[in-house]
Amino acid sequence: MFATLAVMFLFFFLLHSGVAETSHFSSEQGKSMFIEQSHFIEMPQCQRFVEQGGVRFECDSAVDFDAVRLREKMLDIPEVQPFFDAYDEGRRQAKSLVYWETAGIGLMLIGSMMGPSDFQAPIFYGGALVTVNAFLYTFVRNRLNNQHLQGAVNVYNQAHPQRPMSLQFGILF
Question: 0.70 cut: is pTM over it?
Answer without folding.
Answer: no
